[in-house]
Amino acid sequence: MRGATHAKWAALATAVALAATACGGGDDGGGGGGGAEGIVSSSWGDPQNPLEPANTNEVQGGKVLSMIFRGLKQYDPKTGEAKDMLAEKIETTDSTNFTITIKDGWTFSNGEKVTAKSFVDAWNYGANLKNNQRNAFFFGQIQGYDEVHPESGEPKAQTMSGLKVVDDKTFTVKLTQKFSTWPSTLGYAAFSPLPQAFFTDHAAWVSKPVGNGPYTIQSYAKGSQMELRKWADYPGPDKAQNGGVTLKVYTDNNTAYTDLTAGNLDLVDDVPASQLKNVKADLGDRYINQPAGIIQTLAFPFYDPAWNKPGQEKLRTGLSMAIDRKQITETIFQNTRTPATDWTSPVLGEAGGFSSSLCGDACMYDAAQAKKLVAEGGGIPGGTMKISYNADTGSHKEWVDAVCNSINRALGNTKACVGNPIGTFADFRNQITQSKMPGPFRAGWQMDYPLIQNFLQPLYYTGASSNDGKWSNPQFDKLIDQANAETDQAKAVKTFQQAEEVLRDQMGAIPLWYQNGSAGYSERVSNVTLNPFSVPVYEQIKVS
Q: In b/e form, how buried is each residue of 28-43, taking b as 16+ CB within 10 angstroms?
């Protein structure tokens, strides 16, 4: 991301206790034939950007990357544990210098061999400022990142000095500081390898991406569907158990759900809130509802002077206290959401940094205190705030209206808050990345890997890749840096939480609720599960 401050972060190894639910079912909803090679049809939304691994940091594009790429590590679909995939071994004696050896026998689907150079070239491309990759930030811990991605001006180098190819199977990485659990981050899609075809004919690759995962992209019609098909020669252990997946674009999840119950679709991986009252009767055991590493928040446009005045932390805290999370999660979401008590996720557990009390009163509904703080914070800019959200998926209208009703009721002002629907997810994200939000906006974070650092630094560190509201606080940044340098896990967690307390005191974003993963599927498919990231484990689905 252009101008992004480089990241010098460390992470903590945390255990994720998450049971993935497996249920029964059977065939393709799109006429894909029967048997193990049938085609699964699933709801989807167009991704915001081309499917370059280092340029995709939203859920819809991430679903595709999870099917067409495999990296050094792969997160276990049940536990979230980072396990070796292409990595034969990752060795270090000082947690700063790493020697990575990759396994033999891996190729891309175009026949190119996956080598050490495939990783080094991909990471250098992702980090380079010239390529404007949204996930460049994730390479910031590698020595030489500052040279290829300076905070201002042009790159002084084309490659990072901390990456060296030793031979076809081996490369070395030098970090800017100790980072003992750095290998655990390497299952994130930004660290995927890329074939030479990506560089020699980039336009052709972007039009039909080539990866090394269990599926290949057969076709993509924007606004309609993407067809992915099983790669028969895939060398990995997690081969597709079906003939492929057709991702069908829906601009309304209610329509997708109707198609599912009518037998015209096999899988909906985000059951709309309006259907939750019916889902058990409609689907029975074919409905999945499980904890996931997802938090929903309201972000603020700190780039807008009207929303970035001294003392407005009281306004933001007052707005937080005006939201009756308990009532909304019970009535709108039928208890598929849990009121947030911090800015992380319960899946981390207390040892990993989750806290049931860190936000405290600031996340508890208190109409009188909310009204008092909003007034002390200067009132709502312009008298009415618009909460922006994408209108195409996720049934966001219902909960945004409920949030506004709660705020209006608490403040005794029917015009204090209104919803501001924006057509599609892609349009919504484009306005966010172009810093065009007219007020608070829907924000959600699906963890990239199950570590507390991932819930804080990418979203709130100055200049971070997903800091869409442009919040910036020197004390927060300093504490994050201190936590990154800490090698003792318990001390690091405590320091990360001290940074989180700064975020709370300034209310840099309002935490709303933790989201469960939800899905519904047809009788034609079986072995349907969601991973801890709330993404279907597509390759395990069977079609009868």
A: bbbebeeeebbbbbbb
